[in-house]
From TrEMBL:
Species of origin: Penstemon davidsonii
Record family assignment: Belongs to the protein kinase superfamily. Ser/Thr protein kinase family.
Family matches, as SMART domains: B_lectin (SM00108), S_TKc (SM00220)
Location of the Bulb-type lectin domain: 26-147
PROSITE patterns: BULB_LECTIN, PROTEIN_KINASE_DOM, PROTEIN_KINASE_ST
Domain called Protein kinase: residue spans: 481-752
Catalysis: reaction(s): L-threonyl-[protein] + ATP = O-phospho-L-threonyl-[protein] + ADP + H(+); L-seryl-[protein] + ATP = O-phospho-L-seryl-[protein] + ADP + H(+)
Identification of the protein by name: Receptor-like serine/threonine-protein kinase
Keywords: ATP-binding, Disulfide bond, EGF-like domain, Glycoprotein, Kinase, Membrane, Nucleotide-binding, Receptor, Serine/threonine-protein kinase, Signal, Transferase, Transmembrane, Transmembrane helix
Length: 770
């Protein structure tokens, strides 16, 4: 026992690689050096160029001061200074002559500063291990990024007592999220959920139970991640997948879903990287990693290649009374493997035995077979790779085409019950004529009742082509407490706040359709049909619906910050940079509807009231009740006037064919309102020339008096070049001739700065119907 403990201590000493001094002296950053947040992308590189320190543009006009991998296509961020307070364009990170290291906005206001203690800073350096350090003239480290991690650990880095990692809010939003990984001062290593957006913790969802023994988390250069005691003893491994730092880039990250994952990237770009669950990584013809789904699986989110894959079939039943072995077969994938999640290994198995072992096991999703044996994998499959160096083959178990699930449904059970009753009744028919009549009558009543019940159930089945949840009216009545709390109302509907108690108190918004039955029927089917086909982060998610006679309701995700209309026309004006983010988000949502849906959708009613904001002020397009779907062979349609006056394109009034350009026009009006924080039509102004914003905006652009449009908005005035660009984009969008308006894809590119904005022509005339 003592010998084993001694061996563990020796092993820990050998693989611990502490950093006490700076190993490199070249490429030092001298006092007075600085980097400005702009599109020039100036950086401070490590000597090998493998890591970069500088600004990453997260959204147009907003930057993150960060460190990232510089030699791989993903440019993955591993540390950031201002994750909760993005820096605007023109902000500066500077190493001052007196040793201060600060990030200040263009007005000199401090956004972030290194917490310095000890001797005076003489220089800075970006090290090849991904650590940014401030050092004294004796090369002593005064401050280092490794001591203040965000959500990521790198090889050579330790997480000491009192240190923690905080997950990002989402894959693209780097602000602090909902999960915490903490090396507590009592020695316990704990995963917490956070009381988002507050900083306090709610509960621990897992821990190492190492109170009074745990000391630090170590990520060594050999790729091991473990919890060590003060004397170096390894208490537990968090990742025991060895990978040499000389051959692979590595990082361990607490991701936005609360899972700590260890990622490995080949330095030579001759192997696969890491993808989401149930997917696999391979190199494309351009030598860049691709994430793909195996046969029988499809992407969770087609807009996010890292989202992983989901099953396209019903998994194998583990019910002992149901034998589904014959309903499954295998698809072969040569040179494929999912290295993690082996739960059973068979040595000296031939391929037929390997197949049989997986078929007979309801937990087995994939079997890996090669000349050394058979490895069984279960869901979720992790770190899939496809590479010629792997050898062997993956046997992916899928349900055979046209195979059905065994008869366990309620209707089949009802038929079984009816058969049993018939058999029982037949056995009793010989007793007497009267008894026979009673039994026969009872049997007929029972069958009629079940048929009626079956017909009622069928009337509430899912709509054709729709795979969302069907609620009963009673369920939604209870969820909304009798439709008590109203969130808003429109011409044909009212929206109520609700709670789904059996889903951990999930908040929902229930839209109850009313008015005329015929109109409600059309609106209901249009909205369910259109939204159920969509899946995008900038569209409000439809969770379900209710269709019971005249009771037609739609269930949406709850958007806690209400509508964009209240946000920009309220008492306090939102920041210019948040408005820029919102404009780009709305454009992305419209691009998806116009160009990325399987069926092209024209929203027909884009306006601030139909853009909602979630808890992070992410903008999402809502209200598809007026949406118009186009068949794949259509580019235009004809229909009656739809939409809201003031946002309706001129062609609606001229019996012209309707295309996606009507949404472009509406977006242009919305964009004007968003950047100017005023309504398109405003009658309480002193100068009547300012009543219609679209008129006035072009006049101001033409005579170069843009500051009149921004009034006292200091942020917009400071960023007047971007304000002018957005104004020009809006003027292009509201051109009277639809052919002159750009498509939303080009609008988005202009907003993001990847395409230059040409000088817009005079719109000549605007619709005056308000």
């Amino acid at each position: 026992m003592a010998f084993a403990i001694l061996c563990r201590i020796i092993f820990a000493i050998l693989i611990l690689l502490p950093i006490s001094t700076i190993a490199q002296t070249n490429l030092n950053i001298t006092l007075g050096s600085s980097i400005v947040a702009n599109r020039s992308n100036s950086t401070w590189l490590s000597p090998s160029g493998e890591f970069a320190f500088g600004f990453q543009q997260i959204v147009p006009g907003s930057y993150l001061l960060a460190i990232w991998f510089n030699n791989i296509p993903q440019r993955t961020i591993v540390w950031s200074a201002n994750r909760n307070n993005l820096a605007e364009e023109g902000s500066i990170i500077q190493l001052f002559q007196d040793g201060r290291f600060e990030l200040n906005d263009p007005r000199g206001q401090r956004i972030w500063a290194a917490n310095l203690a000890g001797p005076r800073v003489a220089y800075a350096a970006m090290l090849d291990i991904g650590n940014f350090v401030l050092a004294s003239n004796t090369s002593r480290v005064v401050w280092q990024s490794f001591d203040e991690p965000t959500d990521t650990l790198l090889p050579g880095q330790t997480l000491n007592q009192g240190g923690d990692l905080v997950a990002s809010f989402s894959e693209t939003n780097y602000s602090s999220g909902r999960f915490l990984f903490a090396m507590q001062t009592d020695g316990n290593l704990v995963f917490y959920t956070r009381n988002f957006p507050m900083n306090d913790n709610i509960f621990a969802y897992t821990s190492t139970q190492t109170v009074d023994s745990g000391y630090q988390v170590v990520f060594n250069q050999s790729g091991y991640i473990f919890l060590a005691a003060r004397n170096g003893t390894i208490l537990s491994f968090l990742s025991s997948e060895s990978a040499s730092s000389s051959q692979f880039y590595q990082r361990a990250i607490l991701e936005y879903d609360g899972v700590l994952r260890h990622y490995v990237y080949p330095r030579s770009n001759n192997g696969p990287g890491a993808c989401g669950f149930n997917s696999f990584c391979s190199l494309g013809t351009d030598q860049r990693p691709n994430c793909e789904c195996p046969n029988g699986y499809s992407p969770v989110d087609r807009n996010d290649r890292m989202s992983g894959c989901k099953l396209d079939y019903v998994p194998q039943s583990c019910d002992r009374e149901i034998n589904e072995t014959g309903l499954f077969s295998f698809i072969e994938m040569p040179n494929a493997d999912w290295p993690d999640f082996d739960y059973d290994i068979f040595e000296q198995y031939d391929e037929d035995s390997c197949r049989r072992a997986c078929l007979d096991d309801c937990f087995c999703a994939v079997a890996i077979y090669n000349d050394r044996g058979c490895w069984k994998k279960k869901f979720p499959l992790s770190n899939g790779r496809l590479d010629s160096s792997i050898g062997g083959k993956a046997l992916i178990k899928i349900r055979t085409r046209n195979a059905t699930v065994n008869p366990t449904s309620e209707s089949q059970q009802n038929r079984k019950d009816q058969s049993t009753l018939i058999i029982t009744g037949s056995a009793l028919l010989g007793s007497s004529v009267f008894l026979n009549l009673v039994l026969l009558s009872s049997l007929l009543i029972f069958i009629c009742y079940n048929r009626r019940k079956s017909s009622i159930i069928q009337s509430y089945t899912v709509l054709p082509g729709v795979n969302i949840r069907s609620f009963t009216f009673i369920e939604l009545q209870e969820a909304t407490n009798g439709f008590k709390e109203e969130l808003g109302n429109g011409a044909c509907s009212t929206v109520y706040k609700g709670v789904i108690n059996n889903e951990n108190g999930k908040l929902i918004a229930v839209k109850k359709l009313g008015k005329m039955v015929e109109e409600a029927e059309v609106e209901f089917k249009a909205e369910v049909s259109s939204i159920s086909r969509t899946n995008h982060k900038n569209l409000v998610q439809l969770l379900g619906y209710c269709d019971e006679g005249q009771n037609k309701l739609l269930v949406y995700e709850f958007m806690s910050n209400g509508s964009l209309s209240s946000f920009i026309f309220g008492n306090s004006r939102p920041s210019w940079y948040k408005r820029v983010q919102i404009a780009c988000a709305i454009a992305r949502g419209l691009c998806y509807l116009h160009d990325e849906c399987s069926t092209q959708i024209i929203h027909c009613d884009i306006k601030p009231q139909n853009v909602l904001l979630d808890e992070t002020l992410t903008a999402k397009i809502s209200d598809f009740g007026l949406a118009k779907l186009l068949r794949p062979d259509q580019t235009r349609t004809t229909t009656g006037i739809r939409g809201t006056r003031g946002y309706v394109a001129p062609e609606w009034f001229r019996n012209m064919p309707i295309t996606v350009k009507v949404d472009v026009y509406s977006f242009g009006i919305l964009l004007l309102e968003l950047i100017c924080c005023r309504r398109n039509v405003q009658t309480d102004v002193e100068n009547e020339n300012e009543e219609i914003l679209s008129y006035w905006a072009y006049d101001c652009y033409k005579i170069r008096t843009l500051k009149l449009l921004v009034a006292d908005d200091e942020e917009a005035i400071y960023d007047i070049k971007q304000f002018e660009k957005f104004l020009m984009i809006a003027l292009w969008c509201i051109q009277e001739d639809p052919s002159l308006r750009p498509k939303m894809k080009r609008v988005l590119h202009m907003l993001e700065g990847s395409v230059e904005v040409p000088i817009p022509p005079n719109p000549e005339s605007f619709t005056t119907i308000c």
